[in-house]
């Protein structure tokens, strides 16, 4: 598909990141996200955030949420749901103070 140009690169890239997450290879997913020449879009970030949330790697998820905000991806419903998921994950795993600090960030 890549050779025929029938699918945008970011779609293929996002599918690969999702595959790493489904295989619980979170470090591989992060490396793919950070080491690619392809600029992730909000959906790409969302796939990674959801995958890492399922792996209970909340600090990594917080970093990527901050990247989304810094890259000025406009919030959409999917991203807002993911941010809520991040808060829920922090509430389950962290202290109240850590949750409050994360929200302030």
TrEMBL record:
Keywords: Repeat. Gene3D superfamilies: Tetratricopeptide repeat domain. It holds the Pfam family PPR_2. PPR repeats lie at residues 41-75. It comes from the Eukaryota. Belongs to the PPR family. P subfamily. This is Pentatricopeptide repeat-containing protein.
């Amino acid at each position: 598909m890549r050779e025929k140009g029938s699918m945008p690169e970011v779609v293929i890239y996002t599918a690969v990141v999702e595959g790493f997450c489904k295989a619980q290879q979170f470090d591989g997913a992060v490396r793919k996200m950070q080491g690619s020449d392809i600029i992730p879009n909000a959906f790409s970030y969302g796939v990674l955030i959801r995958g890492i949330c399922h792996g209970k790697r909340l600090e990594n998820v917080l970093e990527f949420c901050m990247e989304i905000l810094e890259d000025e991806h406009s919030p959409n419903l999917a991203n807002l749901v993911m941010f809520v998921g991040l808060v829920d994950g922090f509430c389950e795993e962290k202290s109240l103070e850590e949750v409050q600090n994360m929200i302030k960030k």
